[in-house]
Design goal:
421 residues, 74% helix, single chain, mainly alpha, two-stranded antiparallel sheet
Length: 421
Amino acid sequence: MIDVVRRRRLLFASVSLAVIAAVVLLSRAVLLPFVMGTLLAYVLHPVVGALTRLRLGGRAIPRWVAVLGIYVTLVTTLVLTLLAVTPRVVSEGRSFALHEVPALRQRAERDWMPKLRAAVARVQGAVVAAPPREEAEAPAGEHPPDDGALRLTPEPNGVYRLTLPAEGVVVERVDDAHWTVHPRRRQPSDGDTIQRELRKLGQGHAADVVRVGRGIIGGVIGGIFTFFMTLMVSAYLLVTEARVLGFFRTLVRPESRDGFDHLLRRLDRGLSGVVRGQLIICLVNGSLSAVGFGLAGLKYWPTLALVATIFSLIPIFGTVLSSVPAVAIGLTQGFGTALFVLLWIIGIHQLEANLLNPKIMGDQAKIHPVLVVFSLLAGEHAFGILGALLAVPVMSIAQTLFLHWRSYALGYNEPATDSVG
């Protein structure tokens, strides 16, 4: 009888997992609102719980009222922020495209490209073999400079010296009695190619502009739809939280429900260190970036601070990515400004790595840095920027499930500080 029950449980678990995997694979294109809604519900869960514990007139606030109040406040704050920030972001983006990009291009052509070509020439000169000794030691002025032309120079003994260009010559037949000889065309160097591409920067076609405009409009509409769907999914999860958790508890045998509750607590401990901790780190990074960019007098510093805040959602790589536009703008104002901005960003990164991450995330999530880097690379490769955003929370869940399964399979309770790494 026991074997029959075990086989039924195994069959039920196998079929359920297969169906869930099939549903996820077939509907992966529409999973974004559900994944983001689940994360938003998890982030807002403590706030909803705190509001439901308050009492007005001796009665507790209903859960749906607390959720509605939070959403009204959230949407109102977001709309007011967009109304205040969007005009400035658009204005600064237009100014950057019309003024800063041409300035960067001109500076690259005037200052950076000559240095780059000189460096390439030095490298090529070190690689190319030296000329024969008698030519290298000939008196200056005896041979005319090689300017890419054919030269016929008379010598004192009555003979003529034929000087060929370094690129060689091309001999072409005109007719039976005549041939032409002309220098081979010089191939463009890497520096010339880069300079030509830089000159093309900002020069587009009307069709490209229309296509980009359509993509932007479609992205905005899709983003608005996804945003409201995320809010709806999150609201349903927050209001029906007890029923959702109760359903999952019914899937576990009564004698194993204490272990299930323990697993939920471990999942919450790990995710709280990653999700809520990363949000706190984003706010700190954005605030410090705004202070440093403002002190440096960096142009467009509010927009760049907003970019730094958003990119901080991606651990490790976000700071690196957000530093590129800030340093580039600093270069247009001077090397000292760019250096100050770069050092300030490095200081923020060191503060995050040595203080914020260990105290806010590391004490709870306990994910080894190597696993963080691996999850970021794997998530970005598989699902792009969204995969990078969700990589660390998914790794936290996977690590918690592994440790819980290890404890269950091996039959012992690991120390509270145990983790992968």
